[in-house]
Amino acid sequence: MTCPRPTVGIVGSGQLARMMIQAAISLDIRIVLLASDPHDAAAQVASNVIVGSPNDPKALAALTSQCDVITFDHELVNPDALAALETAGHRVWPSSSTMALAQNKRRQRQELSTAGFPTPAFENVECLGDLIAFGERRDWRVVVKASSGGYDGRGVWMVGDPDEAKAIWDGAETSGTVLVAEERLPLDLEFAVVLARRPSGEIAVYPPVETVQRDGICHELRVPANPGANLGVYAAEIAREIATRIGMVGIMAIEFFVSRNELYVNELAPRPHNSGHWTIEGAETSQFEQHLRAVLDWPLGNTDLVSEAIVTLNLIGKDAANDPRLRLAEGLGASHAHVHLYGKEARPGRKLGHVTVVDDSIEAAGARARAVRDALFSAPDR
Amino acid sequence: MTCPRPTVGIVGSGQLARMMIQAAISLDIRIVLLASDPHDAAAQVASNVIVGSPNDPKALAALTSQCDVITFDHELVNPDALAALETAGHRVWPSSSTMALAQNKRRQRQELSTAGFPTPAFENVECLGDLIAFGERRDWRVVVKASSGGYDGRGVWMVGDPDEAKAIWDGAETSGTVLVAEERLPLDLEFAVVLARRPSGEIAVYPPVETVQRDGICHELRVPANPGANLGVYAAEIAREIATRIGMVGIMAIEFFVSRNELYVNELAPRPHNSGHWTIEGAETSQFEQHLRAVLDWPLGNTDLVSEAIVTLNLIGKDAANDPRLRLAEGLGASHAHVHLYGKEARPGRKLGHVTVVDDSIEAAGARARAVRDALFSAPDR
Question: Angle A323-A326-A329 (CA atoms, 0-180°, nearest 5)?
């Protein structure tokens, strides 16, 4: 008798793949992981691991040969290689074209703007003169981003004058980095809308989540977010339209800015996302189960909150000596929270885990989550 | 640098081990599994598997050599082998003496009764004459149990007259089964108290759960149970006393009867238990995370309900053609529920998975859970 378990291949082996593996156990979905290192967060907990690079066609072929569908832990995969798999008849979700769009901030901005969605003013700067002219026009309220490869504050620079512009430009030229310049908006609020879409077209949208960022790294999630009722509804509509327009399949997170009561689309990520970690305990269906249901074209789950308020704090590394894994008993004893550790060595700025509390108010949930986070680090992080 | 991950060894590889593995991912606990078959429910999702028998001292030694503590998916392990490990300095939780007690229903009944806890009348029947005399005294309202090895209705027989007694006795004599006879009480309610105890003595008790049994197999869990407020409090006290008295470490489930408004202790299981499956989504801390916290002597988690009502339905196998794995999409589409499949071939009477719904009332939760269960089987199960 053939095994009725569907098999999903995951390219990449960070914490997102790790939490997908955890969710897959309940639905008896077999996971095969393509990991670049057998010690990676997800590889530690996977029962089927192929060690190889996502850009090695042989490794990708080995993965697809034993899977019903492949999906991703990150965007850094060559879209041409994915298109070749699609042509050969393999199911790849999100598709190669969605992955190509997600990798390229220039194209992403251009397509969203052309489609009429509200985006910050931007320009594809091709020389230092372009950047300085853009800066002058925007009173040097400018943020410059690498068009591809950035994450957690990397590949993003605040630029306040021509000297800073020259320094960024020279660095980018040396490394061959393509840049896009954007106006830096005064922010009332940053929030995200996480949704899932399946091939049949069904979409399930989670309530908006406030994302509290510091130095380009998300530190805290608060649900429900309060962008103002109209803006929340508008953002959900935009998210649905984008998902349908780009043929998204799987979980997608769209980050929004609210500036002077106006809504702007910041960027999108076509995969389970940090801004959806609260869903594991805070929503009826976790984003990780939802992603698996979507890529397998199964009915999507309910996205309602399970309580009034949810707060998730990321555990951001300080240095190697401050390792939450060594203080787990203290953390668990400090208050009641759902602690998630990703099995990663502590390094400054690295996401090592997260802590979620479900409670009756953002204040109560936040207080408990902070007590646990502080106890997980030797020194309180305020 | 040494890896700070604690390692827990699990003897046995059924669904309980499978759900422990799933819970261990969040807390970055490394699990090593001793599985008798590499295709077992837990072995499918384990990243570290030793294939061997729990009664092979070499296999047990291989397991303990790489673990900080070992624990169990089932009771069927030789307590002498465990005692030898303890003597050699290994941490074994629950201890060899707790395991010995759990394996032996005669000893269990005797110790609970001697300690003054309310139990049904019982007798260690040593010959057919003993059994017939016990039956006469109890007006043939009698249940006969194998002292060890029974589960899910196996090793339990209702005996209503001398002919039935003789048939059971002859079968037991042939197979060398030791029997205990008990009075069969008219049942108002069956419920269980699940608790965790850690070596330091801390105990955390979950609210009582009603267990709906048919043919000795648990079909449904309802939380909160309503044994009457006094009986619920009394049962929780009894459970605490038993756990302390036997030096329990880990999750323990104690099954209770209510008969004519009186409370009786039925039996205990020193491990995560079917009657605790509702805790995965229905309690602040799942029994599987709680068990791992307890055996590692970490602070225990909160046991509060997350909502007013929780219903869990077991998915009990009918025949090989009725495999919920083949109808998962239909099940997920039927209503919103948390579906757990154990990766087991469908066979009559086998627990293949469970479905949990958290809602505002037992009625509402039960209706949704039944819709999903019915859709997971070809023919409705009423």
Answer: 130
Task: Report pTM.
Answer: 0.95
Per DSSP, the three-state class of B223 is strand
Residue of B122, B136, B150 whose CA lies nearest to B269? B150
* Chain A residues with CB-CB distance to B42 below 8 A: none
DSSP 3-state assignment of A249? coil
Nearest chain A CA: its distance from B47 CA (Å): 4
Report phi then psi at A353, rounded to 5: 170, -175
Strand ranges, E, within B216-308? 217-223, 250-259, 262-269
CB burial string B202-224: b at 16+ within 10 A, e below: ebbbbbbbbbeeeebbbbbbbbb
Contact B293 A22 (CB under 8 A): no
The neighbour count for residue B349, using CB atoms within 10 Å, is 13
Q: Which residues of B touch A202 (CB under 8 A)?
A: none
Q: How many CB atoms within 10 Å of residue A52?
A: 17
* Amino acid in position B62: A
Minimal C-alpha gap between A91 and chain B (Å): 18
Which residues are CB-neighbours of A144 under 8 A, at least 6 positions away?
A125, A131, A156, A157, A159, A165, A168, A179, A180, A181, A182
CA of B174 vs chain A CAs: smallest distance (Å): 36
Which residue from A minimizes the CA distance to B292?
Answer: A329
Residue of A nearest to B302 (CA): A336
Question: One digit per residue, pLDDT tens: chain A, 382 residues?
Answer: 456 789 999 999 999 999 999 999 999 999 999 999 999 999 999 999 999 999 999 999 999 999 999 999 998 899 999 999 999 999 999 999 999 999 999 999 999 999 999 999 999 999 999 999 999 999 999 999 998 877 777 888 999 999 999 999 999 889 888 999 999 999 999 999 999 999 999 999 999 999 999 888 999 999 999 888 799 999 999 999 999 999 999 999 999 999 999 999 999 999 999 999 999 999 999 999 999 999 999 999 999 999 999 999 999 999 888 899 999 999 999 999 999 999 999 999 999 999 999 999 999 999 999 999 999 997 554 4
Return d(Cα A379, Cα B307) in angstroms, integer.
Answer: 35
d(CA B378, CA A6): 19
d(CA B272, CA B195): 9
Q: Is B310 within 8 Å of chain A by CB?
A: no
> Using only C-alpha atoms, what is the Rg of chain B?
21
Q: How many CA atoms lie within 13 A of B352 on its CB side?
A: 23
Of B270, B203, B191, give the one whose Cα is nearest residue B234: B191
Name the residue of chain B whose CA is nearest to A360's CA.
B306
Is residue B290 a contact partner of residue B196, using CB atoms and an 8 Å limit? yes
Which residues face B158 on adjacent strands? B143
Record: contact B4-A326, CB cut-off 8 A: yes
User: Do B74 and B14 form a contact (C-beta atoms < 8 A)?
Assistant: yes
Domains and CATH numbers, chain A: 7-92 (3.40.50.20), 121-183 (3.30.1490.20), 189-376 (3.30.470.20)
CB contact under 8 A, B340 and A47: no
Q: What is the ipTM metric for this complex? A: 0.94
